């Protein structure tokens, strides 16, 4: 791209806006037009914050908007809100919006985000069934909560036990609802090993949530008014005043696919490490709509997370503006909480390690988050997955009380760097009684692995 | 060491007892006698917990004892408490105790610990002046606090602004005292750079502590009863009902030195990475009494910390018992808190990087511990020191609210692994609103460095 050129961005959230902002940072308006098409009214909003807004922990919808369209405009980015891209003509280099307007581009960045999983069951479209994807979803759930019956404890069914499911269960309980979490899987948090998932399940039950496992929802039941009033599984029915979907997120790549862009095995847009389409070099993509690669296995994966979307957007924006950049892949690091329980994971769990063909071992230790004698010391379980022959760390999981969750970042950094358990055990992690026992739980876990390997 | 042999250990705290326990784990009583000489009555106690016991956060003295002499005895370790080693005859392989008993050894492990710094000023030995080193010190301070005047707010002077100084200031304030911290240095926390130390100083003042900087104490003043009643500096006097010493800790190597063992430039016992004396191969040493090496510079350093003592003891115990092991060095990672402020550091600060001859840069970012909109988001400042040409991380510092401190472990792991700022910026750290903004503060700092390096 030389001379004055135009970058068109489809999607004004994390991936799209970070690409737009990065391209603008490197090239000024004389050399690059940056035009963003956003179907909604918001840009750069935190979908991850929606549960906490519903729970009343976040005061205002506007708190979840990191940067408004007007703020982007001030930085020299043209933003068309309420503008839904309906078709891409890759040969003509043109995007057509739902209202018929067309936008010509030299370079296109697709950031259409994720698509919440919706199983094909009757009743899922009934009023009273809510996703947790866009700010409008949050607004609708907040309104529904204000309309709940007050003469009895209202009930919620949360379908799914991933991050959104757990977070929604927590906040709906905090809002006074009797919450049932209904899972098709045997345990919540499918990206944890079963022994760690069991700890999460026990923690959820201890905080008063009802957890139904191994029960796929077959139908959302509706009342005489047509609104959802419960769900039916093979085991029975569960009443609900509201039903919330937390079944995970796939890539929203329909627009790209219809245009003829290459789509990967995960269903995400097939891009290289510069976020450039492998089939159409004038097209880039970033965020929840793309397929990326796993740092350990090298295999294609789809991971929907704002952090990756931001980084990928920056990479795409840099490359589009002429500065080299690469996205370094993902470990699938994730963190969440449900009530007092903090949960983190990174890299490969045992089922992933097995599928990837690693000869591995796994070890779990139980420790405390602070010196045992210091007030507020909470239980923490740390699991490490390591390559059997080399001792190289492949992944880790933590479940525990306050302060446990962020321990996952130490493991993520060690996995990222390719450390062995022995090297991590020898490393210099911090110690003082308010922060950890003499050996931090992560170091204890690494030491246990390292000792076991030595035989 | 073949056949039945005897290991004598001088010092029954972290370094000594972990060596004893590890040697016992590997070799049974038929092949190895393990005899520990401890001058006090306690073994394996947490000196780091003493401030919190004084502060009433830890209920009982016994809570600070990880393992009693009796528990060690049950594991096949002979412990002689109240037995002060007074001389070592390296030729005769014999230790003589203060009471005249002698102990012959095949292998000797010296774990005499640290010696609190005591400047040569008048009045320092007066009653009412307290160290914070052994459990008896804690007991004495607790007793003194119970005897304080109740008709006015009692006053404490804490001499020194290192970890112990800060922790003691916090707990004495919590016990209702008006606390002045008197420093010879311009700022507290000398192992932080000045800009980060200023944050600590401001935080201390914000919590109501009086901080006198650049004021070396010239004399401890005593009242008519001979008890300490204040301190005098060049700027004036500061009244005190009790005076607490927190001036840091050197190696306690006098016994080793008198015996003729090699002592390093730091004053610690000169050992190799197997914790074996470089001058006397039948002698090992571990813990606060030894000189160790810095992981980044390779230079000899002395760092007094229970974590290192434990690890070094394990290494020594393994090697003594015939199993290879090496101590991998230290980064000088440390963490502490004062009131609501958490403080961590690892690797080289700028003055250390300069002294070590690195061409380096340093960058500071300010962020929050949680998503800005999530309740309890606290300020955090992260500073990174990196090698200019390579971008390799040399060290880091964090100061901030709840959840800030343990972030230092991510930096410590990255420094340990030899990552560049760019690699850390690309790594997969966890994100969810209750735990961090979309980019964790550490990742933001790494990105700022990485961007600046790129020019």
Question: What do you see in this structure?
Answer:
The structure is a homodimer of 455-residue chains. In chain A, the strands form 7 sheets. A 5-stranded parallel β-sheet of chain A has the order 3-2-1-7-19. Chain A has a 5-stranded parallel β-sheet with strand order 9-16-10-11-12. A 5-stranded antiparallel β-sheet of chain A has the order 22-23-26-25-24, sandwiched between helices. The first copy, chain A, folds into 3 domains: 182 residues, FAD/NAD(P)-binding domain (3-Layer(bba) Sandwich), CATH 3.50.50.60; 119 residues, FAD/NAD(P)-binding domain (3-Layer(bba) Sandwich), CATH 3.50.50.60; 121 residues, FAD/NAD(P)-binding domain. With 455 residues, chain A is α/β, with parallel strands linked by helices. Helix content of chain A is 26%, strand content 27%. Chain A contains 12 helices and 26 strands. At the A-B interface, α8, β22, β23, α10 and α11 of A face α8, β22, β23, α10 and α11 of B.
